[in-house]
Amino acid sequence: MGTLLLPSSHIEFYQEKGLDFDFVRQKYGFDQMIPVAANDVAFSVHAVILTSQTLSKVVYDRGDQKLSRIATAILSVVWLSAAACVLAALPSHSWYWLVSCFNTLQIVMTIIKYIPQVIFNFRHKSTTGF
């Protein structure tokens, strides 16, 4: 999910239409470039393509393996949050706010992704396998 949200910010910052440049100029200065280059956009789109290819393997028969209830709950909350952000941004065309919401969701998903490994390392007092 986080990988799917990454290109939204890169594409929005890379293109000049629809972005609130006053905010960008206040944050980065009037003489500064927008901090996203074409290679950033290419990398994020490439990541989405490779992640989609990897996720396509999920549809194959995996025996009796299923997503856990926690994983299903997390995914549901994230998808509902993303949908709510889109619905809230549509009437006012607040695209920068929408991109900020997507970035926040991406950060939350990244943190959640690494928590099990951190707990495992803490319990075993080891970083083997990290």
Brief summary:
With 130 residues, the chain is mostly helical. The chain has helices at residues 2-14, 21-28, 38-55, 69-92, 95-124. It is 72% helix and 0% strand.
In terms of structural class, how would the helical and strand content be classed?
A: mainly alpha
- What share of the residues does DSSP label as strand, in percent? under 5%
State the helix count. Answer: 5
The termini sit apart by 21 Å
Which regions have little confidence, pLDDT < 50, spanning 5+ residues? none
Protein architecture, described:
By secondary structure, the protein is mainly alpha-helical. It is built from five helices and no strands. It is globular and about 55 Å long. It starts with a helix and ends in a 6-residue tail after the last helix.
